[in-house]
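User: Hello, can you help with two protein structures?

Assistant: Certainly.
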Amino acid sequence: MIIGIPKEIKEKEFRVGIVPSGVKALVQAGHAVLIEKGAGEGSGITDQQYSDAGASLAPSALEVWTKADLVMKVKEPLPPEYPLLRSGLILYTYLHLAPLPELTQVLLDAQVTGVAYETVQLDNGTLPLLAPMSQVAGRMAIQVGAHFLEKEAGGRGVLLAGVPGVAPGHVTILGSGTVAVNAAQMAMGLGAQTTIIGRNLRRLAELDDLFQGRLVTLASSQQTIEEELAQADLVVGAVLVPGARAPKLISRKMLSLMQPGAVIVDVAIDQGGCAETSRPTYHSAPVYTVDSIIHYCVANMPGAVPRTSTFALTNATLPYTLAMANKGLDRAMREDRALMRGINVYQGKLASQEVAQSQGREWSEMCF
C-alpha cells in the first residue's frame, strides 16, 4: 500500500501525520510512504530524516493525494483539498464532521472512505486516538487561560496561583474525561481552586479518589453550572459526545453571571463548542470578547506545540495504520471493532450515527 502524508494547510497548523520512526515501521512492513517536501518542518522534522527512514519525497500535495492509497493527516480536508478527494481513497485523520455538513457532503460525493481518529473507540468506551491530543489540549487550556486572565491580555488581572494572603483563582471545568483530567492536573498544580462538573457520578467518584479530595466534583445541572460561572475566573469546556455535536451548556444569557474579564477556553469547539457564543478561532487571532467575557476557541490547540503533539499522535495512530496497510481496510475493520467505529463515511455512505443525527441525515450501519 502507498501511504501519503501531505503538508497540513490549516492556518498555523504545524503538526504532521507521521514521524520518521513510523515511516520506518511501514517501510519495513513492505509499504511505500510518500511525503510532501517540507511537511515535517513545523514539527522540527527534516526531509532528510524522512528519506533516511525510507520515505519518498513528493514535490507537491497533488502528487501525494494522486498516488496514495491511504492519506494520513492531522486535520480535516479544507476547500483547496476538496478537488483532490477521489473514489477509493482512504482518508485517515481527525474529521470532526458533526458541525461540518459541507465537508460531510464533499466526502460522500467523492466516495472517500473516511476513518476519523476521534471516533476510533475501544469496547470500554475509551478513544485511543483522541486521547493524546486531549491530553495536550487539556494542559494547554490552563496555560492559555492563565495568560488571557492577565490584564494586558484583556482579562480580570487574576493570578491563578494566588499568593499568601490572597485567594487563588477559580477554575471550573465542564466535563470529566481526558481533557478535564489534564486541565485539572495543571490547574491544581498551579494552586488554583478547581472544580469539575460532570454527569457520570461513578466517574466523579473516581476523580475524587484520584485527586484525594483536593478537587471539587459536582453533578451537572443548569443550576450548578450557573453557580460555578458566577465564581469562575477561568472556565474550560471539556465536554464530549463521541462523534456528535457538543451540548450547549453555556447560553449567552449565562455570560451575564460571570465576572467581566473572565475567560472561557472551549476545547469542545472541534465538535461545535459547548458555549452558545463559541465560534472557531485560529492561533493568529485566538480570542474574542462577548459581553465582557474572553473566548478562546482555537480548533487545533495542539498545533501550537507541534513537536510534542506530532510524536504523541503517531504513537497512537501508527498501529491502526499498519493494520489497514497490512490487511486492507475491510479485513482490518472486521477484526477490530474499534477501527470499525472510526469509519465515518464509506464509499458514498454515511456510517456514523452521531454525525447523521447532528446533521439530520440518514446513515448506514457498517456490517462486515
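That covers the first. Now for the second protein you mentioned:
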Amino acid sequence: MTESNLAVPGAAGRLCLTVPADRVPCFFPLLQKGFVLGVPVGCPIRVLLRDGLGLTDEYIETRLQTVFLDGKPVDDIDGAFIRDGETLALAPAMPGLMGAMLRRGGFYAPMRSGITHRDDDNAAPRWIGEGRITMKLFGMALRELGPKLLERGIEVGAGDLSEVIRELPGDCREGLGDLEGLEGQARVTLRVTIAQEGKGTRD
C-alpha cells in the first residue's frame, strides 16, 4: 500500500509505505543520518525516552548505554534536559576503549570530562511541552527502535528519502511513480509499516 501527498513543491509532504519486514532496514540510513520527531521537551532525557518513546527504564539502562546530546556524551540522563531543536543520538555500548570511554557513567568517563555534556542548574528549562528534535540511532538501537519509529512517522529530508527509495526493490516502489513529486519537497513525513503475511505491498 502506498499513500502519498507530495503535490506541493517546497511544502512538507507525506508518504506512507507498507513493505515486507526484510525491507524495513532499507530505511535505516535515514535513522543514522538524523530524523525529526515531535516529542516532549523541557524534560530530562530519561523522561523523553520513557514517556515520549514508550521505553522502559530497564531497556534504557541495559540497552542505551551511549547517549549524545548536541554531539556531547551524556552521563546523567536524569539531569540532562532536552530542549527544542537539539540533536539526540542513541546507541548501545560500543566496542573497544573508545566505546568504554563514551559509555555513560562508565569507569573511563572522567577521561573525557572536557567534552561531557553538563546542564547548568540555572539554565534548566522551567516548562515541559511539545517540541521537535533531531534524533539519530546507531548499532542495535536501529533494529530495536527503528521499526517502531518508522511506523510512528519521522520527518526527513526529501532528497535523502529519494535516494533510499531508489534502492528499494520494484515491488516496494510500486505506486510511487517517478518520484518527481517527492523531489519537489524540502522535508517529508515518512511512515513505514510492515506488510502482513500473505498480503502485497499495495492495496
